Amino acid sequence: MSKPANEWTALTLTQACAAIHKGEFSPLEFTHACLERIETLEPRLNAFLHIAGEAALAQAAKTDPASPLPLPIAVKDVLTVENMPCTCGSKILEGFVPPYTATAVKRLQEAGAIVIGKTNTDEFAMGSSTENSAYRVTHNPWDLSRVPGGSSGGSAAAVAARLVPAALGTDTGGSIRQPASFCGLTGLKPTYGRVPRYGLVAYGSSLDCAGVLAQSAEDAALVFSLMAGHDPLDATSADVPLPALTLKVEGSLPLRGLRIGVPQEYFISGIQPGVERTVKNAIEQLSHLGAEVQQVSLPHTEYALPVYYIIAPAEASANLARFDGIRYGPREQAESLWEVYIRTRGRRFGAEVERRIMLGTYALSAGYYDAFYGQAQKARTLIRRDFEQVFEQVDLIAAPVAPTTAFPIGAHGDDPLAMYLEDIFTLPANLAGVPGLAFPVGFDENGLPVGLQLMGPHFREDLLLQVAHAYQQTTDWHLKRPPIDNK
Amino acid sequence: MEFEPVIGLEVHAELQTESKMFCACPVVDSTQAAPNTTVCPVCAGMPGALPVLNQKAVAYGLRVALALECEVNRISIFARKNYFYPDLPKGYQISQYELPLAEHGHLLIQTSEGEERIRIRRVHLEEDTGKLTHVEGGSLLDLNRAGVPLLEIVSEPDLRSVEAARAYGEALRAILRYLEVNSGDMEKGVIRFEANVSVRPKGSRELGTRVEIKNLNSFRALERAVSFEIERQSRILAAGGVIEQETLGWDEARQATYSQRSKEDAHDYRYFPEPDLPPLVIADEWVEQVRAALPELPRQKSSRFMQQYGLSAYDAALLTAEKEVALYFEAAVQALPASVSPKMLVNWLTGDMFALLNQSGGLSGLGRIPPANLAGLVKLVAEDEINAATGKEVLAEMFAGGQSAEEIVQRRGLRQVSDSALIAALVRQVLEECPAEVAAYRSGKETVMNWLFGQVMRRAAGKANPQVVRRELERQLKV
């Protein structure tokens, strides 16, 4: 039975695709519905940096309803889309319109997807709350006084508020999984190299992954399967076949035979009791579904934070050198070349970006390289080995996504270290290059979503999605909707 | 005190692949192409664009590395070299630092001291920068050259004279051209030198403080800059001064080096492994494949020429310095009858033919005389069909008009007269007409002979066989 138009946007992506395939409504009608909802809710959320309404409608009118993904999506503003502004949340790219589309986005467009707009992000994806955007602060649909997480906070808020059925994000140290957790979504950070990085504006090149924020494992699987695969334009993209992603749940013990490891290092002091309780309940639910849960150890976990804050800024210090006002982007006028550089970069990069460029430059400097960058690379190898060893004992790892639920806007305003601690459970997967999935497993005492993180061996996204899907078939946390429509 | 220079060279050679090092943009002649016409998001350093390694550039690099007898690293690493300048689109240059493509090679050069073995420290791949042109009121940026593959070849400080530095540069250029990886067009900037120069008291084993001279774009600039530095440093040391470690430029107009950066201002390039490119893994089979396909190199060719054609080391080196000349010589020698000495062909080629080429703008003029035609000319001279003077005239006409020597000689009736009866008659005639000169000769003024010889040759319109004329003159005057 068809639903009325104002309920279309309540559908999951998989449901909406099915409805379009059945002819219940057209891609154009659905895009209209999304744009209307954006018009109503966006003023309260600030999820977008750019809304491409006209272009999206024009594209929707041409979209083949039979294509695999004939739907509007939103794209984090660090992924390029031809002829759409790309600011990366920074004033240094104000007005920049790239002439090319990121491979991940292009593949979805070829599958029918319509890019409806670019979502807010911490400047160059550096942050965990989206407060570091140079343009606006995005609000969490579950509590507008709180952050949506970050750096893919705009994408998370947009999907949580059902402005779009799914959105793309990027994850360098947790930037998909943590906002997914804060906003009650299913967020997949694929294996490093699984989804091409061409068109992903680099922050930490050896860590950056494009992925998806959606309402369910099924939705995430569909989008992910369309984006993944080797790209001749990205030398670090992997040429590894994608396993079939048909998620199935059979019997009352669908996870029988699955070994899940729970790392003791991820339950530290500082984790909020509501988070710890909810995560442990979820792990118990997985064992009810037949999984065999055991404690494991990732002994070098404590080094993940310092290692990350050397490697990512080091790479960033080089990656962001190209923003010099010479070839594109705004240029501050000055008398000498050096003044042009100093003014353009000094005035147009935000404080957190400056801080990381300084950190990275220092870590790579003559006389410090071995002590910082060199040591960090060695420690990174140890962290990667931790995972390899644990995956000899178990099939996947279950852990919290972040030590807290969504915090109030401004809570970490003057304390970058407190903000860095938000990523303490998500950084290791990036350093090891393994896939990670966050999905909602309950709420804390304030009614804020709590996520569970699954991490698996390289290229086993299918396993993570399969387990989350099994969980979602027996629970309905992922279907809970934020109270934003109640106002 | 006598001083000895210690010189090491860094040579940057463009690899003339079809496309750039990390993108699909074509490699064009950046001195000719309209600015910024072969530029894409990758080589313009746009956000989100990524480099993908051109395997052809690696193959070209391998050719050079193997020709220089280097050890090829089976795993080599690309690195980012960080600095700010408008011609560097990404704010870093993708280069190699630790683990370059190849190491520990050598190059044999020939100087007046004999053969010298110059060690090669490393050979690595990197990308070229764009080109900045300063104009009234601003600077213009052309990114056509940005991302063109470069091979940096670094020697050990084994060169001990300006002559050796030049010989090394020339030998390297010849190899690059033989390998067909570089055009060798110095004026287009496809080969650039940087020289590290220090001096020390002769006999000392310690190295002096060195300076680095950047951007030397011709052999002439290399020679001048290095000898300027040797003199400057020797003068300072002789006066009891000390040399500052610094980076110098070469001022072509003033013919002098000038300081660009002192040691204190030296860049910290903050090299680190390029995360966008996986380590470059080179399989043994690839190395062997490239090695097997290496062409004959200048020195090999030179020794073969000596052996096969009985040439001197000097001639062989002269012929093999440029690949085109060597190929031309071999094609011509094939067309030469076995009775004619190849040495004679060499003389015509490196003498009169080179002179014509020099007047007409270089080696491209070689094609104006097919090799077989030059052999034809040499044959006519060797077989006394024409004399040497006529030969020169014929060669010039061949060069201008493209006809064969045989055709020209035939058409213009230049064939030499060796008929002794005919020549005897001409000599008799001249002697009869010039009794005074004959008397002078007979009274002991022997130089008159040359004058009389000229008279006979003039009568013969230059076509008489000079040996026969001389013999006949001597015979009749003795009577």
Main sheet attributes: strand count, strand direction, barrel closure of chain A:
11 strands, mixed
Helix percentage of chain A: 25-40%
Supply Rg of chain B: 29 Å
Low-pLDDT sequence parts of chain A: none
The radius of gyration over CA of chain A amounts to 21 Å
What proportion strand of chain A? 5-15%
| Count of folded domains of chain A | 1
Tell me the helix content of chain B.
25-40%
State the helix count of chain B: 15
Task: Indicate how many domains the architecture of chain B comprises.
Answer: 3
Can you offer a commentary on this structure?
The complex is a heterodimer of chains A (487) and B (479). Chain A has a single domain (5-261, 272-299, 385-486), classed as Alpha-Beta Complex (Amidase signature (AS) enzymes), CATH 3.90.1300. In chain A, helix 3 (27-45) packs antiparallel against helix 4 (53-62) and helix 8 runs antiparallel to helix 16. The longest helix of chain A is centred in the C-terminal third of the chain and has 24 residues, at 370-393. Helices cover 38% and strands 13% of the residues of chain A. Chain A has an eleven-stranded mixed beta sheet with strand order 1-3-2-4-6-5-10-11-9-7-8, sandwiched between helices. Chain A is globular. In chain A, strand 2 (72-76), helix 5 (103-110) and strand 3 (114-119) form a beta-alpha-beta unit. Chain A has 16 helices and eleven strands. Chain A is α/β, with parallel strands linked by helices. Chain A has helices spanning 5-8, 13-21, 27-45, 53-62, 103-110, 153-160, 177-183, 217-227, 273-288, 304-319, 337-348, 351-364, 370-393, 416-421, 427-432, 461-474; strands at 48-51, 72-76, 114-119, 166-171, 186-189, 209-214, 259-263, 292-296, 396-400, 436-443, 449-455. With 479 residues, chain B is of the alpha+beta class. Chain B has three domains: 3-291, no CATH class; 298-403, no CATH class; 420-478, Arc Repressor Mutant, subunit A. Helices cover 40% and strands 21% of the residues of chain B. Chain B has 15 helices and 16 strands. Chain B has helices at residues 55-67, 162-178, 219-238, 284-292, 298-309, 313-320, 323-334, 342-360, 371-382, 388-401, 405-412, 420-433, 435-442, 448-459, 466-478; strands spanning 3-14, 71-72, 75-76, 78-82, 92-96, 102-111, 114-127, 131-135, 138-142, 149-155, 191-201, 211-216, 246-251, 256-262, 272-273, 280-281. Chain B has a nine-stranded mixed beta sheet. In chain B, a hairpin with a 4-residue loop joins strand 13 and strand 14. Chain B is elongated, with a radius of gyration of 29 Å. The mean pLDDT of chain B is 90. The A-B interface holds A 78-80, 86, 88, 93, 96, 98-100, 102, 197-202, 204-206, 232-236, 314-315, 317-318, 320-324, 326-328, 337, 341, 361, 364-366, 369, 373 and B 41, 44-53, 80, 82, 84, 86, 89-92, 141, 268, 270-272, 275-278.
